[in-house]
Structures are given as structure tokens and as C-alpha cells.
Amino acid sequence: MPTTTELRVRYSETDKMGVVYYANYLVWCEVSRTESIRQQGDSYREWEEQGFALAVSDARIRYHRSARYDDLVRIDTYLTEVQSRSVTYEYRMTLAASGELLVTAATSLIAIAPNGRPIRLPAAIRERLNAMREAPPAR
Amino acid sequence: MPTTTELRVRYSETDKMGVVYYANYLVWCEVSRTESIRQQGDSYREWEEQGFALAVSDARIRYHRSARYDDLVRIDTYLTEVQSRSVTYEYRMTLAASGELLVTAATSLIAIAPNGRPIRLPAAIRERLNAMREAPPAR
Amino acid sequence: MPTTTELRVRYSETDKMGVVYYANYLVWCEVSRTESIRQQGDSYREWEEQGFALAVSDARIRYHRSARYDDLVRIDTYLTEVQSRSVTYEYRMTLAASGELLVTAATSLIAIAPNGRPIRLPAAIRERLNAMREAPPAR
Amino acid sequence: MPTTTELRVRYSETDKMGVVYYANYLVWCEVSRTESIRQQGDSYREWEEQGFALAVSDARIRYHRSARYDDLVRIDTYLTEVQSRSVTYEYRMTLAASGELLVTAATSLIAIAPNGRPIRLPAAIRERLNAMREAPPAR
Q1: I need a labelling partner for C77 at 20 to 30 A (CA). Which of A88, A91, B63, C117 fits?
Q2: What is the ipTM of this complex?
Q3: Whether D12 and A23 lie within 8 Å, measured CB to CB
């Protein structure tokens, strides 16, 4: 089962086309990653405080339909890969009210130290991430 | 020859990791599209005022190195495909001072009317876009 | 009694100083206005769809302490003035966990038509807003 | 003479009202501060690298007219006060093409150390800032 986050579209997130500006879906991906980790009883903030961070190395987004101001958006978050030095998340964003598909996305992230150098996932965190792993969403 | 835009990293574009937040590179892609069209003597703003818009349908970004506050970033922008209903841009972002590679990205955009419906590229605009077409950057 | 909204600080809202970038508190003011109106059973989105909007004419913020990534922030929102053409909101933002004061702010907003022209508050909306009016927060 | 910065309004900076979202003017204040310091031959980035930062303690903005996508905006920046622990900047933003007034703003900033503690302005930086001081803009 993926973890699920809901958020309300902010006025600041819209643009003059009247819909959500396209870069903001990447912000929501990150919000859903943080919430996904929290829902499993962990804390990405604490991981960073312990000297471990995840930096995005690759992102892909497909835009199917536009979200609008004040829409309630549902984000299903799938941690689909955990490797020795990287993880991959997939996302499926829908309108909470109707279930209509907004966006599908995927991001790969690499483990880094506070100085920005790539590192191996610490064993304890890798174990925790493995426990969160999901099959990817059906196409 | 691609068109080239330079911009200076803003404090607001950084995050607590000390580097540019990953969604902001998509903002820069859009800035470079606007500037690329202006450099060819056209105006995306006027296209929109005439009832023609381009909406991103797909975006892909690879993050190689992080930009930092006050860095001068160079964006080479390549319009690599012009089809009857869509166009594709590719981007190569480097540090202006050193030439180090920051990001490569590609976005596909579809032509839409003010009501959001997909349309064919108007003939005059398609001709102008064709004149801007480039070979993609070497890998 | 003011209305109260809570939100979680996003990674994108931080800057290289490690704290929330100062302009984002104005985004949160707007989020809290939308939520305040919703909590009273109205909808700012619907007001705009009916041709009535509120545009900020003046903003003032005092920064007391910085919010950080993943902090839960509480925003108490006070609609303190309702006039024929404008309204004033005041805000008090605190850390939800400790009650420590982050920011106090005030914004004045004027009623405008879809073309941007200042108008009088429609009678029905003015009545609704009057019902939401509060004494300002104690200093 | 104030220092002057020009910037082009980005699509991402607009909102569904078709104009620049109100919080973004604070971003532009910061851009103009950075550029103002650079124009005097100094570098705010280097000041931060040396362990000295300026954090905004108070901001005030009056919104006169809205900037729109692709407008060229001129920002006149006035460093109007330099005290032992704080400085004040005032801003006057106009449309570069017509000179129409968009926004006036003022921000006070306090000197802080890397740990966030308020400090006195280092003597060398205070001297540099004093050399940049201006009379405030005429009302």
C-alpha cells in the first residue's frame, strides 16, 4: 500500500493560466516524501540532523490534468527501489474529490553526507527504507 | 546554435542544504524559453495575448551538480522538435564561470487554447518555431 | 476568537540560512485567510468565481523567531476591520509545539472586480465578513 | 543616488489573478539588496562566507499597481539607515517602460552570526555600508 498525503492548492501556487504552475508538483513530491517517512514512524528531519541526506539526481513528471486553486490534491507515494546508494520514489497525484489523474512522477535520490559527497545508505536507515518499499503503481 | 540565457541565483532559490532547491531548475527552463523566443524577435507574452499558449506535458531533469547562491548560471536552450500540436525543448545549464555542468533537462509542451483545450499550432507560429529549431546538444 | 490554521514547514520554504525564507510568511498569511473563510462556512474561491476578489494593498511583518523545516506552525488569524471597500487581517504565528512567537503581521486588502478596478464590497459578502470580525490580538 | 536593478517578471511569479503574486516583491527586495552591494564593489555572498549575515526583522510593503508577466521592472534601492546592529533599506519599484509606480517597501535587517545570534556590525562592513547610505526616496 502506498502512503497517502493530501494538500490544498495555495493561491501562490497558481499562475496566470489559472492553474498550478508546473514546477510546484516537484515541491509536492517532496512534501509527500517527508510525510511518507513520518507515517512510517521515522523523520527525515532527524535523518538530516544525524548527517544523512537524500539529494534528487533525476526527476520525471507527466502532466495529465491541471490542479486549480483550493483543490484538495491526493498524493499516493511509492518507494519503489532501495539500493546501496540511492532510492526511487514514484508518485500518483489525483483530485481528492473526483479521483481524476493530475500527475504521475518519479524521482531518484542519492545518499549524501553533509559535505555533499555521495555515501552508502547507513545500515539502519536502509533497513527502515526497505520496510517502506512498495510495488510501483499500476499503469 | 542554441540560444543562451544567463541568470543569477537568488537567495530565495536556495534551501537548507545550501544549494538551489530542485524544483527551481524548472522555473529557469521556463525563463530560458521566454528569453529564447524573445531573442528570435518574437514574444511569448504576445502569443498568449493572441489566444495561443504552450502547456508543459512532460518534464525530465538530470541533476549533475548543485548551483549555489549568487552563482551566475548559463542556460543553453534548444528547441529540438516542432510537431503539429507540440514542441520539445532541451536545456543544458552550466556555471558561467567554470563551464561545469549543473543540469540537463527536456520539456515537451502542447499547444492549447485559452480554455485549455489542445489545438494545432497556428500556421504563423509554427513557421516561427520551425525557424528556431536546433539539433539537440551533444551528449 | 480568531480562526486557527496549522501547517507544516516545507523543505522548499527554507533557505541557505537553514530557516524559512522571509517572503514565505506572506504565503502563509494568504493560506490562513483562505482557511479562515472556509472555517466560517464560506469559500474565497467561490467569491472569486462570482467576480469578487480581494487584493492586498499593504502588508507589514515583524519577524521575531525563525521557523525551521518540518516545524508545525500555528497561525491565528484575526479579521480586524471591515470597511466599505477594504478589510484588514492581523496574524500571529507561533510554533505549535512550544507556543513561541514567530511572526506578527497585518495585511490590508481592497475589493476589486475581475478587471482589477476597486469596487465596494458586495452587501452579502460584507455581511459575512462582518460576522467574522475579531478584536485584534493582545500585544 | 540609489542603486538600480532591473528584472523581468517570470511566469512562475504570476498568480491566477494574472498579476505578480504579492509575496514575490519581497523576493525582489532581496535581489536588489544583493545587486546594490555588488554595484558598490562588495559581495553579500562573501560577507556570509566570512560569518556575517543580515536577517530581516521587519518588512513593510505598499502595493500601488500590479506588475505582469514579462514586464521589465526597475528597482531603486536606498540604504537609508546604518546602526550598530541593524540597517534599513527602502525600495521603489516601477515599470521600466513607463515609470509607473508598482510598489514602495522598506525592510530592517539585523546583523547575526552563523548561529543566528544578533551581533554588532563588524567595523569593516559597517564602514562599507555607511559609504552606501542614501537619503530616502522623495514621497
Answers
A1: C117
A2: 0.96
A3: yes
Domain extent, residue A21, equals: 3-131
Which three-class secondary structure state does DSSP give residue C86? strand
Contact C43 A11 (CB under 8 A): no
pTM, whole model, 2 decimals? 0.97
Per-residue pLDDT tens digits for C38-77: 999 999 999 999 999 999 999 999 999 999 999 999 999 9
CATH assignment at residue B26: 3.10.129.10
Report yes or no on C24 lying in a domain.
yes
Nearest-Cα distance to chain A for C73, in Å, is 15
d(CA B29, CA B22): 12
pLDDT tens digits, one per residue of A48-96: 999 999 999 999 999 999 999 999 999 999 999 999 999 999 999 999 9
D17 touches chain C (CB under 8 A): yes
C136 within some domain: no
B15 is catalytic: yes
The CA distance from A105 to A78, in Å, is 10
Split into its structural domains, chain A has a count of: 1
The residue to which cell 497517502 is assigned: A4
Is A112 in contact with A53 (CB distance < 8 Å)? Answer: yes
Which residues of A fall within a CB distance of 8 Å from B116? 17, 19, 66
First CA to last CA distance, chain B: 15
DSSP assignment letter at C109: E
Fill in the DSSP letter of residue A134: -
The residue written with cell numbers 506552525 in the block is: C73
